[in-house]
Amino acid sequence: LKNAPEKKNEDWCQDIDSASLLIKCLQQRNHTMEQLMTVLVKKQREYILSNDPALLQPQTQAEMAELLDVHESTISRAVSDKSIQPQNNKITPLKRFFDRSLPVRTIMCRLIDREETPLTDSEIAEELAEAGYNIARRTVAKYRAMEGILSSRLRQKN
Length: 158
Description:
This protein has 158 residues and is mostly helical. The chain has eight helices and two strands, in the order ααααββαααα. Strands 1-2 form a two-stranded antiparallel ribbon. The longest helix has 38 residues, at 6-43. The N and C termini lie far apart (82 Å).
């Protein structure tokens, strides 16, 4: 800046200010990601080590934002299009940690895998209620569709 021509001095000052702001924003972003990952790893330790979706602790982005004292949109941007690769070498999108339905869907899939005769959505809802997950029959149907599982009538073995 000392060597800048007088005509360029103001422009260079603005450029330095812009660069400083960019550096500050990048540092803040890195700090937020570090905090997010620290909290996430502590809370989801069992899931990360085992990769068993039933061990995933349900959590929302809003809850994480409150913990980190940032806006929910900051968490949304922080996890968007980002993944981790834990010890099992399976790449996991960060958004998966904020999918509250994943543990329920996992248990539902296990119920369906073990069924001797196809369970209806109502029966699955009852089984899930016994396991502590009170969800409606139509929610079971939605989760079943998300998992690509056919209805009980179409799952019947002929």
